[in-house]
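Worked example

This section walks through a single chain of length 400. The input is the sequence exactly as stored; nothing has been trimmed or padded.
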Amino acid sequence: MPVLPRPHRDDVLIAAGGLAGGVVLWHLGLFTNVPARRDPGALPLLPLIAMAAAELLRRVAQPLALLMAVAAVAADQYFGSLIATVLMFTDIVYASVVYGPSRTARQVIPASILVTVGLTVWAVSAVPKPESLFVGVVAALVTIAPAWTGLTIRQHQKVADEERLRAEQATLLSEMDRWQAVEAERGRVARELHDLVANHLSAIAIQSTAALSLNDPKASTDALGVIRTNSVQALAEMRRLIGLLRSGEAEDEVPSAAPTLAGLNTLVDRARAGGSTSGLTFVAEDTRGKEALPAPVELAAYRIVQESLTNALKHASPGVVTVCLNREAAGPLTVEVTSPYTPRVGSRAPGSGAGLVGMRERVALLDGEFEAGPVGTAGSGPPTVWRVCAVLPVEEKGPV
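Given that input, the structure is written out below as tokens.
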């Protein structure tokens, strides 16, 4: 047999209060309706007890509680009516709409209207006097009024639940936006940190290796000079990045502006100094014209050239490293860096592959195109050139 749910604490109090009140009214003989020419005795207590039992189930077992209440109120009118039984019946009608299934809630009001109309017609037909209309008024107060009140409360609860759901969804979307913003910022900081520091540290690693392997005092001195220059620059860039992260910590220090392609020659000269002991020469060809480019495009192009030169210093075979910038009229900016490539040759400094990932991310943020890898030559031999090519739309698409 199915086990009924445990009654709610408030329902137990309502049932106990109604039962106690009904017993007091019965003991005092205060009946609202007594059948003619007979003493009801203890019979009115039976529907009272049944109604109190239905009250226990008003919140947890609808429409069973309503069916019990209908039978109990009908018996109450037949044996002798107690106002406590009728009042508990109105509460169960209300509860059937508020706590019952949707189907029950939809059916209670039409059923209450039919009962009220039926009782009114019966009373007027039995006793054709104006006073008979009070039967319909009482029936409406006992059935329609609590059912309508319950429907209003249920609709308000539904609206409140919907608003609560919308608030939870808004909170979830806000949290997702915050998480995405944090991830985007972490990616941006990671790219900036890699581009700012990795170039200098790679040059330091290459030059320190050369200084240790050469017996020429002048070459060692030159290498140490390059190491010192890159160390100072890396430290300055690191301090600038920390200042950006800790905004407001150093109010008297204004972070430097983002690098642009105006510093391309300086970037190539720095790479030329770092690769002097590796047999590398560097050539820059800038045919993009004098038209100003959007700041995100300039920054992305600068970082791509910077990372490509760093990779050439670490991995390229001796030879010529070429940097080409080109832009047709009203077209995208093309950045191409080629360097000598020999398969299966060890690098001068360790790499993690984060540079290629960062370049690809920068180009993707601008909806551009990116390629990196070895390319073949006119002959049938193995690839001898490592090529990095990025096509950057000039229209601003977003931050980099």
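What to look for: DSSP finds ten helices and five strands in the chain.
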